[in-house]
Amino acid sequence: MADTPLAPRAAPAPLATAQATSVTAWLLAGGEGRRMQGRDKGLQPWRGQALAAWVLARLAPPQAIGITANRHADSYRALLGRCPLVAQQGIPLAVPGGVLPDDADLPERSGPLAGMLTALRHSHTEWVLVLPCDTPRLPTDLLPRLLAAAQAAQADIAVPVTGDGRHPHWVCALMRKRVAPQLLQAFVNGERKVGRWTQTQAWVGVCFAPETAFQNMNTLETLHDRD
To answer: What pLDDT, in 10s, does the model give residues 35-52?
Structure first.
């Protein structure tokens, strides 16, 4: 399906690749797992390996890679070290050890915006990709397509959408690092909804199919039903 924006778009630019433009990718694994009886979602097994490992395996090579996690940091470091992007392709870690909790100045239990802000603050690249830890079927071309669409639209954020553009997947987002001050200000003002904040920025939606590629396995029932 062609990339279809949900915001005004400039003249198309040449197709970009993740390697051609500076991108740091972060897996967001800082949730409390309330719908999984408190279990750490990213570490739950599915088809022989942790959900987070599946997400990392779907990722096109970025400039650097990291994980935001508020518990089980050692387990996530080990998982990241075994990731083919790191172990075989030598992709650098975004920070020493590769894993960070949400920044200490951000209130606890603040949702994915806290992980997104932490990722932006600790990246040294123009672009920052964030991905939820419970979406093991993400398209393998997610990063290059989001990047190409953002550059063509001169947007600061690119988000995948499914269902003919009706269903944006806000937490799968490619953002310019320069949006960090606006996100911090919104956070300080009490904003916690990723989609509502994104729509205050220069953003573009990029159509993907099928919708099942972005399904979250955020309950034990869905985890087992989709095994």
So the answer is: 555 678 899 999 899 999
Residue 110, phi then psi, degrees to nearest 5: -100, 5
2 SS3 class: coil
Beta strand 99-100 pairing with 64-69: parallel
Contact 52, 67 (CB under 8 A): yes
Contact (Cβ atoms closer than 8 angstroms) between residue 206 and residue 160: yes
Give the C-alpha separation, 177 to 162, whole Å. Answer: 25
Distance of CA 105 to the CA centre of its chain: 21
Go through 13-37 and write b for each residue having 16 or more CB atoms within 10 A of its CB, e for each that does not.
Answer: eeebebeebbbbbbbbbbbebebbe
Note the pTM of the prediction, 2 decimals.
0.87
Quote the CA–CA distance of 124 and 177 in Å, as a whole number. Answer: 8
The values of phi and psi at residue 27, to 5°, are -90, 125
CB distance 55 to 133 below 8 Å: yes
Q: Report whether 208 contacts 161 (CB < 8 A).
A: yes
